[in-house]
Recover the amino acids of this structure.
């Protein structure tokens, strides 16, 4: 079988012979770069569309390309049903009990059949359990369930975080505000026109003012501002004339229902909507994050999808441009989110992504079984189309219209009649691939998926699956010990020392607190060779016991992004603090110890990849640096392969041209030889007949004829020799072409191996601070959550 384990190529199946629709030996290998121009997959229920799209995500995962998959039905969660051992025990919890009862067999028997079927299906397409293991090792697979604890919790109502990278684009900024407000009002079932509705205009001004100043708003903050906005005019009218207080109160109450309703905490708790965090783990490992929203209402889905698209758009705008595939955004069913006439809140950010994301390496892949519900003018930005079996003639005509629009955008044209014929009678798992780069469409049959296609998963099944994969959940932190002698500390701190409170990860302070020292140091890190010359504020938290006032700064942790406040919660239980902290001399000693520690053991540590001349920026997250270096490897790989192909292409084209000429010559020589053989045979036959039946046994005429026949025979031999020489030359050219292609494949494989992102090694460059510039800003008492 043709080798398909190549970086930058997605193995999707086998091509089909157009006349017979039978599978060929040629594999369909899609270049990952092709997805930078986006893709759309269309096919009715049972067409195999889900299997095709899961295969595409599997290939991206194996290639180390992260993805966010929006899953409105629950099918994409099947990606977690991948079993390297392919044992019946792995399949048994997921087989359909109804099918077992209907067939009169036990569930273990059905699981055994399923495991055997999956193993055979994989083998038929050159795959096995080892490839499944490679998939599992290449990425982390995570299922998020906003508004539910079935999977990883994700805040459905996150803070309206100020978008980054939009300050230089007023139009895009305004569109982002408008879509966020439309989604929010849709959530509370208020049908509002962006240009005429006072609710929409008021919320847009509140949100726009906050974002323009770089301020994020949580929903409670937004509700308060609705009642008491920070401005007193809307346009030329005063606020009361435009939108009276009593009407603003009604709007505030409608929004407040989401906070006051039973179970509302499920919609506000969980991880924040952070695109970078969903694409890469803290260590920099690529992730496929599945956002399962089947359990949400239509209004909640629309709000959430719009929020996700807005966050992805902001993330995209913050990236640098690239022609290599950086990440994928996949949506399994876009019915209702991208219609041809209506304008739901999700449509505008989706259209912006289709138009702009390609320049930043984000590929958008959309799938649907309802072709008539697609805005094909928007989808004209998609360069790759996968078209499967369609339900009605109307669906086929709509798809052809879309292909025509896409071709006109790319400057090409389609043979509508030929495409119509190709789309007729497609079997399940058979698709027509139309790509902007290739004038001729390709028929192919999808490969067997590495993941078990169980069908849509319920919330309970997602919960069972997530619990079964503990690596998908963040590790629980062990409760910190609390001193038995709790109570407000009676020690009076020196006036130079502040008392601060560290907010927990959930954003609030815990009811039980333990003491720590918070040291703040300004340090100057400089190294000319690395091009580093920065001042950094180092903030260290060192826990204290109730007896010892000399903490171990070596065991201190960086404060990071955790926030500090000057007042703690009322009634909080505090552990005792050492009595020595009431003495100013103790704090002087602590400052001196902190300065020594930072100089000796708190270097500026930056990730480094010498082979790429890559160095992390001060303050850059390890995951962001790893993602940046992986993309740099892909870019180098793609550029090197393109350069190699450009170098080989002229020679390849010349050989193909010479081969075509030789083929024509072989056909010509064969035709001439064939005709000469016939002429020689006729001439010889005429001579023999004349000699046998002529009036004279030997005549001058017969002698001349015999001589002519001999010449014809000699000419026939010459023509046959010419044919043999032409055929020999053809074989030489075929061998030279095969050798060139083998050489190209070997060099491409070498380039891919050299630039494999999965083998990226990140070293640490440690830069010590300059002692003369080291300054201790303060050492304070900090209260941190005990649990």
């Amino acid at each position: 079988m043709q080798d398909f384990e190549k970086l930058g190529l997605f193995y999707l199946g086998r091509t089909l012979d157009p006349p017979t629709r039978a599978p060929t030996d040629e594999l369909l290998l899609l270049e990952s770069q092709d997805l930078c121009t986006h893709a759309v997959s269309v096919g009715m229920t049972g067409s195999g569309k889900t299997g095709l799209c899961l295969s595409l995500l599997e290939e991206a995962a194996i290639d180390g390309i992260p993805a966010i998959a929006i899953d409105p039905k629950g099918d994409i969660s099947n990606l977690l049903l991948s079993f390297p051992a392919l044992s019946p025990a792995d399949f048994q919890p997921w087989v359909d009990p109804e099918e077992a009862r209907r067939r009169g067999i036990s569930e273990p028997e059905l699981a055994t059949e399923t495991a055997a079927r999956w193993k055979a299906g994989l083998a038929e397409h050159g795959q096995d359990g080892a490839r499944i293991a490679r998939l599992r090792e290449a990425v982390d697979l995570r299922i998020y369930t906003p508004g539910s604890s079935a999977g990883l919790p994700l805040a459905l109502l996150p803070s309206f975080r100020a978008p980054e990278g939009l300050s230089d684009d007023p139009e895009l900024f305004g569109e982002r505000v408008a879509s966020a407000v439309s989604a929010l009002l849709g959530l509370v079932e208020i049908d509002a026109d962006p240009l005429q509705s006072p609710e929409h205009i008021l919320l847009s001004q509140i949100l726009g003012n906050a974002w323009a100043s770089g301020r994020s708003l949580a929903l409670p903050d937004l509700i308060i501002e609705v009642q008491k906005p920070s401005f007193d005019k809307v346009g030329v009218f005063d606020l009361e004339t435009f939108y009276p207080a009593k009407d603003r109160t009604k709007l505030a109450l409608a929004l407040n229902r989401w906070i006051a309703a039973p179970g509302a905490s499920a919609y506000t708790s969980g991880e924040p909507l952070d695109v970078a965090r969903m694409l890469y783990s803290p260590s920099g490992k690529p992730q496929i994050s599945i956002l399962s929203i089947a359990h949400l209402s239509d209004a909640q889905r629309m709000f959430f999808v719009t929020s996700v698209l807005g966050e992805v758009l902001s993330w995209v705008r913050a990236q640098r441009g690239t022609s290599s595939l950086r990440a994928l955004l996949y949506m399994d069913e876009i019915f209702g989110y991208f219609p041809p006439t209506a304008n739901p809140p999700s449509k505008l950010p989706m259209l912006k992504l289709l138009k702009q994301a390609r320049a930043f390496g984000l590929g958008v892949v959309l799938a649907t079984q309802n072709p008539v519900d697609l805005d094909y003018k928007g989808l004209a930005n998609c360069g790759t189309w996968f078209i499967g079996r369609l339900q009605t003639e109307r669906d086929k005509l709509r798809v052809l219209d879309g292909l025509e629009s896409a071709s006109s955008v790319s400057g090409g044209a389609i043979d509508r009649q030929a495409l119509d014929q190709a789309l007729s009678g497609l079997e399940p798992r058979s698709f027509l691939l139309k790509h902007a780069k290739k004038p001729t469409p390709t028929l192919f049959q999808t490969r067997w998926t590495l993941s078990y296609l169980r069908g849509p998963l319920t919330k309970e099944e997602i919960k069972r699956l997530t619990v079964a994969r503990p690596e998908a959940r963040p590790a629980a932190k062990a409760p910190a010990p609390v001193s038995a002698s709790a109570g407000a500390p009676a020690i009076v701190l020196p006036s130079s020392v502040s008392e601060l409170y560290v907010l927990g990860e959930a954003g609030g302070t815990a009811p039980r607190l333990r003491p720590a020292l918070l040291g703040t140091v300004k340090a100057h890190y400089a190294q000319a060779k690395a091009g580093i010359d920065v001042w950094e504020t180092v903030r260290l938290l060192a826990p204290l016991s109730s007896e010892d006032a000399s903490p171990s700064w070596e065991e201190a942790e960086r404060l990071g992004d955790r926030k500090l406040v000057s007042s703690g919660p009322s009634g909080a239980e505090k552990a005792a603090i050492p009595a020595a902290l009431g003495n100013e001399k103790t704090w002087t000693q602590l400052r001196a110890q902190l300065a020594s520690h930072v100089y000796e053991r708190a270097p500026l540590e930056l990730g480094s990849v010498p082979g790429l001349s890559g160095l992390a920026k001060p303050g850059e997250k390890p995951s962001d640096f790893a993602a940046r270096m992986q993309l740099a490897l892909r870019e180098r790989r793609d550029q090197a392969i393109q350069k190699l192909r450009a170098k080989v292409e002229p020679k390849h084209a010349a050989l193909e041209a010479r081969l075509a000429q030789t083929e024509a010559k072989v056909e010509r020589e064969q035709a001439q030889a064939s005709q000469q053989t016939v002429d020689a045979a006729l001439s010889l036959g005429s001579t023999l007949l004349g000699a046998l039946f002529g009036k004279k046994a030997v005549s001058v005429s017969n002698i001349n004829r015999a001589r002519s026949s001999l010449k014809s025979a000699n000419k026939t031999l010459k023509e046959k020799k010419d044919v043999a020489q032409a055929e020999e030359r053809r074989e030489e050219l075929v061998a030279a072409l095969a050798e060139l292609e083998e050489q190209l494949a070997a060099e491409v494989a070498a380039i891919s191996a050299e630039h494999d992102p999965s083998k990226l090694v990140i070293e640490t460059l440690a830069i010590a601070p300059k002692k003369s510039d080291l300054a201790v800003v303060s050492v304070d008492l900090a209260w941190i959550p005990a649990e």
Notes: The longest strand covers residues 512-527. Residues 499-603+768-785 form one domain. The mean pLDDT is 84. Residues 622-693 form the longest helix (72 residues).
